[in-house]
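Quick question, first post here. What does this chain look like in 3D?
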Amino acid sequence: MNASEWRKGARLFGLFRPASRLPMPLAYRVAEMVGFLDYHIRADLRQVIGSGLAAAVTEAKDPAQREDWVRHYCKMMSREVMDAFFMSRLNQDNSTSLVSIPPDSLALMRSLREEERGIIVVMAHYGRLNLLLLALAMAGYDLGMLTIAVDERNPDLSPVDRAYLGGKVAALQKQIRGRWVSLGDNLRGLYQGLKSGEIIIILMDAYHTGQDDNRIELPFLGGHLNVSEGIVRLAEKTGARMIYGAVRDPLPSETGKASWQAVATLRPLPEEPAEALKQSVAWLEQDVQEMPWLWWHWNILDYIWKPAVVHE
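> Answer (accepted):
Ran it through. Tokens below.
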């Protein structure tokens, strides 16, 4: 194990895991302190996130604004790591202290369940996304998920990454109770689950090496976002409805919330799958414009986004 991997492992399992045993407010204060340190110590991280922001968001060309967003990004990502270790402690009594879900979002889910069809919750790597799954699970819904492979089948992951992500997904599955399907698995179970009325979470902006086939470009931030068309085919073949889900930080106007107390929402999508995916990207664009620091993917922007071509 090289020095970088050792530091990553010490950070995750020597710092975050023990801190996750503290009372919730203290645990998340530790997470924010780590995020604050990440911002000041990781010049490489500041550079790559700042470059991504400046490439796609006009306001980020202002250095002061860009640095403020990068600082928020580091704190959010640190809170997301704490979520991974803390989630095993969540139950119906304490979960609402960490994440709330508005009544209209729950009403939307109830109305779709009455159709007795499968539901695909389309999400993106925006905010502390697992908190939506936990909020729905605490509301009584069993949820399945499609993820990247987090074991030896995924060459992009180091041993430390596999240990962290494997534990994270296993803890999440225990809470949400549904099926867990990885890319590389036989996807027949995913189709069968949706046909039988299950709820499945799918991340539309997931990216891993060598997955350029079957992807389409949709308008996003003045350019085009590269997303998987497989969600459309899955919905078409199973008759599943699609719904958009996201998790955001508290707004400045929400003065009664701490910075680590998130809000999860569900939003309607058109019934036609291709239009639903297009609207999902439009919802994501709106979310990113509102809180740019919550989108994880500024560091891989070159792989998943193309700026608009300017004709002279």
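The longest helix spans residues 63-86.
The chain has eleven helices and ten strands.
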